[in-house]
Design goal:
Elements (H helix, E strand, L loop, with lengths): L1 H4 L6 H9 L1 H19 L2 H8 L1 H20 L4 H8 L7 H8 L1 H31 L5 H29 L1 H15 L3 H7 L2 H19 L2 H7 L3 H21 L1 H12 L1 H21 L13
């Protein structure tokens, strides 16, 4: 939000892309540290004191984040809203009464991002270790490699959405995500390391494609006085629907019908997001200073 509201004209998606790199960087940092500890410590050392290292490092990150947050100033857009006395006492009430439609459509457009990420990381990791016979360290290595494709897709999709619009990028990403669900069974069942890596790279690349434009799209859906509340509600509601249930449903579906059913779940989530994006108007030219 802060990055988008501080962005110059025509570069809101590019500026909003940098927070969207968080999952890629966080995944690589967390799992890279885990792999390093796994390769340098034996089981006894890790259980005795090694597991504390990630927590200590995360405490340092919290302090850095707190320092940055305390140094932040209000964006020019929000400062103008304050000067015009546009703030509302209960933005959630106004959001739910007047802007519930863009909130729900924004949330639905986010579902594919989380479905792609959590199916390709949480579920695939579990399936790869328990069914395909990979060691946890080996499969995490494959995931770290695949996340590089997500990191590469993020700036590409942000640039494209500034150049061509949010909707064209998200529509292309949604269609490809629907098709990607059909690749899950043949690539994971085929069983070679290259096939598994290819599937992970495809899914996480598409996660970057569909996730990057959201840094601009969600704030652009709402006027300033409810923008923080609306974008946050859409983002988190999409996360609840797309992320929290994805690994659970995937485990149930693979037990009921195999990997093709899980691939169908990915395609269904992508279809839901595609329909939501098609129902939205293009937001690239929206004025963030607008009153309504």
């Amino acid at each position: 939000m802060l990055a988008t509201e501080n962005a110059p004209k025509g570069k809101r998606a590019w500026f909003g892309m940098f927070p969207q790199l968080g999952p890629s960087i966080g995944f690589l940092a967390a799992n890279g540290l885990f792999l390093t500890l796994a390769m340098t410590l034996n089981d006894e050392q890790f259980r005795s004191w090694g597991w504390r290292i990630p927590f200590l490092l995360s405490a340092l990150l919290v302090m850095v984040g707190l320092y940055v947050r305390l140094k932040l100033e209000e964006t020019p857009v929000f400062a103008k809203a304050i000067a015009r006395h546009e703030r509302v006492k209960m933005p959630l009430v106004e959001l739910l009464s007047q802007y519930w439609r863009p909130m729900l459509l924004g949330a639905a457009s986010m579902v594919v991002c989380y479905a792609l990420f959590y199916i390709s990381t949480v579920f695939s990791l579990s399936y790869g270790v328990t069914t395909l016979g990979y060691s946890r360290e080996t499969f995490l290595g494959l995931l770290c490699f695949a996340v590089l494709f997500m990191a590469a897709a993020t700036p590409l999709a942000a640039w494209a959405s500034d150049r061509f619009g949010r909707k064209p990028v998200l529509i292309i990403g949604g269609v490809l995500a629907i098709l990607s669900g059909f690749t899950m069974e043949p690539l994971l069942t085929y069983g070679t390391t290259w096939a598994v890596a290819l599937f992970l790279c495809i899914e996480l690349f598409l996660m970057g494609v569909t996730f990057a434009p959201m840094g601009a799209l969600l704030p652009e859906l709402f006027p300033t006085r409810v923008r923080y509340t609306g974008a946050s509600a859409a983002y988190n509601l999409g996360g609840i629907v797309g992320a929290s249930v994805a690994p659970f449903f995937a485990q149930k579906l693979v037990a009921m019908g195999g990997l093709s059913w899980v691939g169908g779940y990915v395609s269904a989530a992508a279809l839901l997001s595609l329909i939501a994006v098609l129902c939205l108007k293009e937001t690239r030219e929206n004025d963030l200073d607008r009153i309504a």
